C-alpha cells in the first residue's frame, strides 16, 4: 500500500499545497483543465515532498546549434532542434524499485491507437523490464476521465501483435482487462503508485516472494 | 560480478564496435582525448548493447521561449535558455537496482572541490538514497587518469562538513579511503558497474543479505 503521510510529518510545502487544494475540492480535474502530464507532474511533486518516491519527467532532448553569450546577461540559445528521445518520459525510484513509464492521453472513447507510442519507447521498456524494472504506460482516456496503469508486458505484446497481425489499437475492454485502473483524485491527482504496489505484489507472488 | 557477454551472445552492434576498439588498443583514453562524459556515455552504450544495464544521460533542461515552424521544414527553436537541472545527470536500472549518479571531472591532483556539485544534486542523491537507490558520484582526476566511484553517503557527509565547518574540498586521500577506484579500460571505457557490484555486496552484508 502507498504510505500516505499523516499531517504531522508532512513537509510544510506539501501541507501548504494541500491547503490550497482543499479550496479546489469541488472542482473536478477536467474542470481545472489539467492535462495528463500536469496531473502526473503534480503527483510526482506530492510523492517527492512526502518522501514517498522520487520520479521526474526527463527534459525534452534538444540539439543545440547556435548560442549567443551577451555581455552581462545569460546565454541565449538562438538555433536548436527537437530530437527524438531514446527513452520514455518518466523514471525514478520507489522503495528500492526502479520505475519507468510513458504517459499517453487520447480523446478516443473505445480504443487506444498504438501509433501514439514510438518503437524506441517500446524497445526501452523491454530493456528496462529485462533489468527487472517496474515498467508501464499510464494511459488517460481524457473524455471518459479514466486512467490506466498498463504493464509494459501487455503493451509490448499488443505492439508485437500490431506488427505481426496489423491490429493497430488496444480496445478499452482489453485495457480494462490487462491494466490497473486508477481514480483521478485531488491530492495526489493521479495516485499511480497504488497500481505500482499491485504490480510489485504480483511480481513477488510470481517469484515466490523473492 | 559484472556479467561480461561472451562473443557468441554479444549483439552485432557491440561486436562491430569491439572490433573497431581493438584497433585502438595501443592508444590510451587520454590520447583519444575523451572527456569523462564521453567515457561514461560509451560505457553506457556498451552496457546497453550487451544487455547488462540500462543507463542514460538526461538531456539538458531548456526553457523554450520562441519556436519557428517553417513551411516544409522542421521546427526551429529561436529563443531558449538553459535551466538548472533538478536532478543528477545519469540514472537507470541494473539487475533490479535503481542507479543514480553525477559525473564530475577535475584537473586538480590532490583534492576535489565540493563547489563542483550543486546543492540540488546533493539533495536529489539524498532523496534517492532514502528510496534505497544505488547513488554515487563518478569522479575523474583527469590529469592523474584516476577514476573513483564515491558513494553518495560519503559525498553527503563531506558536503555537510563543508556547510558546517567550512572544509570546501575532499582530499584525494579521503576519496581513496571512501571510494571504489575503477581502472579506465578499453571496452567499456569506464567499467563502473564493477564498483556498483561492490556497493550492492556491502549493502547486502549490512542488511543481512536482504
UniProtKB/TrEMBL annotation, chains A, B:
> A Gene Ontology CC term for this entry?
cytoplasm
- Which note does the record give on the cofactor? Binds 1 Mg(2+) ion per subunit.
Q: What is its main location?
A: cytoplasm
Binding-site positions, Mg(2+): 87, 89, 102, 121
The UniProt record lists the EC number as 3.1.21.10
**Cofactor(s) needed by this chain:** Mg(2+)
Tell me which InterPro entries the record gives.
Answer: Resolv_RecU, Restrct_endonuc-II-like, tRNA_endonuc-like_dom_sf
Q: Which Gene Ontology MF annotations are present? A: crossover junction DNA endonuclease activity; magnesium ion binding; nucleic acid binding
Q: Which reaction does it catalyse?
A: Endonucleolytic cleavage at a junction such as a reciprocal single-stranded crossover between two homologous DNA duplexes (Holliday junction)
Q: Name one Pfam family in it.
A: RecU
Hey, where's the site called Transition state stabilizer on this chain?
Answer: 104
Q: Where in the cell is it found?
A: Cytoplasm
From the UniProt record, give one GO term of the biological process aspect: DNA repair
**Which UniProt keywords are listed?**
Cytoplasm, DNA damage, DNA recombination, DNA repair, Endonuclease, Hydrolase, Magnesium, Metal-binding, Nuclease
Query: Superkingdom of the source?
Result: Bacteria
Q: Which family does it belong to?
A: Belongs to the RecU family.
Stated role: Endonuclease that resolves Holliday junction intermediates in genetic recombination. Cleaves mobile four-strand junctions by introducing symmetrical nicks in paired strands. Promotes annealing of linear ssDNA with homologous dsDNA. Required for DNA repair, homologous recombination and chromosome segregation.
The identity of this protein, by name, is Holliday junction resolvase RecU
Organism from which the protein derives: Lactobacillus delbrueckii
* Species classification: Bacteria, Bacillati, Bacillota, Bacilli, Lactobacillales
